[in-house]
Amino acid sequence: MNAQQPASGRSGPGRSDRARAPRGDLSVPGTVAPGLPPAGSFAELDLPAGLTEALAAHGVREPFPIQAAALPSALAGRDILGRARTGSGKTLAFGLALLARTEGRRAEPKRPLALVLVPTRELAQQVSEALAPYAQALGLRSVTVVGGLSISRQAAALHAGAEVVVATPGRLADLVTRRSCHLDRVRIVVLDEADQMCDLGFLPQVSEILDQVPSGGQRMLFSATLDRNVDHLVGNYLSDPVLASLDPPRGSVTTMEHHVLNVHPADKYATATEIAARDGRVLMFLDTKHAVDQFTRHLRGSGVSAGALHSGKSQPQRTHTLARFKDGGITVLVATDVAARGIHVEDLDLVVNVDPPTDGKDYLHRSGRTARAGESGSVVTLVTPGQRRDVNRIMSDAGIRPTVTQVHSGEDALTRITGAKRPPVQDRAKSGTTAFRGLGTRSGRPPKESRKAAEARMMAEARKAAQVRRTR
């Protein structure tokens, strides 16, 4: 665990001597000095009584390492640059400080006092839910501002007054443009999963929002990875930040197992289906919305309770699907990267990359859905021969040394690693669905069949069917 701050050698945000970091790593000021010592307990932090009581009521007895590292300096009003993997407790690391420093103040209509920016709707809702009991304990009002839901209702909630706003950049920018929200009273800003906001193209909107917040306030930037994509934000908007870092820039969690399963292309989705049919929940990643929908339909036709999560779904649909996955209504969540970023599900012990991620950062974010808060978990990546070189590069970039196994559907090795078993429905007549041929191929067309060949085959089948009818 490391908590340290740069030397106070700059007069304002955006002006410091910064050491060049290797590509993909965060460059921080060359000279650093220690921040406040980590806290050994919540009692040492002199939190408001309402927060202490709420923590006890929710069974939170001791601070997680990122909380112990960041909270002393955050409560003192220092800017924080926090690096900790998802599931490490970083929401309370910034949330308790934000709430404690906002206690006793009352927001005017449309003018919040504290702002939390996150990259996705799901993460916004989870942060809001995590902070809600603690905000209520202090009598603070909070509003969640995300796309996909009624902007009029969100504008009305802001007009009624809210001390804390949790928002995605796009929807907040819309409300600011409509003059339904003014940022001239914001004293505290948190950027959660900042690198993901940059990766998703939100940097211009985030910068525009921060430019409207009065200078001199507190800024806290937290993320599972801090790399040079967020260098602009750090250099221009954080002033002498305390560096609170639990994880090295790259590497795996000790409670997490990483497996690469080499599979034959024709057997890939049969393998994935057997994994999905296991006892217990599983989160499965695929590349595209179409692939997610098609694989989800296949799983349901195979008797596996599955739900799809991607940006093409409405926000109520996404919220409902995620809620069903959390409460056990469905056992398999099939998702794209964007939709699943930041989601938190208790006791999720298996993540499967049906399609490998594009880089090491995405691998770490996907894998961060399991082994949260000290729990154990496994990450499995299905790899065909043509993907092996790329996956080797991804694992190297992520600092991961996985266990590599050649597997086939129905084998004991697959069951031993993932708990895979035969799906409840295997007979086409029972399922009432066409046999699943893999993603990206039209139903009924054999793999690698050209369009002309398919048309010729269908014409031949039509002629044969006509002959049968004539003979009846």
From TrEMBL:
Q: Which family does the entry's similarity section mention?
A: Belongs to the DEAD box helicase family.
Q: List each copy of the Helicase ATP-binding domain by range.
A: 71-244
Q: Could you tell me which residues belong to the region Disordered?
A: 1-39, 420-472
Q: What is this protein called?
A: Superfamily II DNA and RNA helicase
Looking at the record, the residues that make up the DEAD-box RNA helicase Q domain are 40-68
One GO cellular component term noted in the UniProt record for this chain: cytosol
Tell me the ranges covered by the Helicase C-terminal domain, including all copies.
265-415
Q: Where is the composition biased (Basic and acidic residues)?
A: 446-464
SUPFAM superfamilies associated with the record:
P-loop containing nucleoside triphosphate hydrolases
User: Which keywords label this protein?
Assistant: ATP-binding, Helicase, Hydrolase, Nucleotide-binding
Short sequence motif named Q motif, residue ranges:
40-68
GO molecular function annotations of the record: ATP binding; hydrolase activity; nucleic acid binding; RNA helicase activity
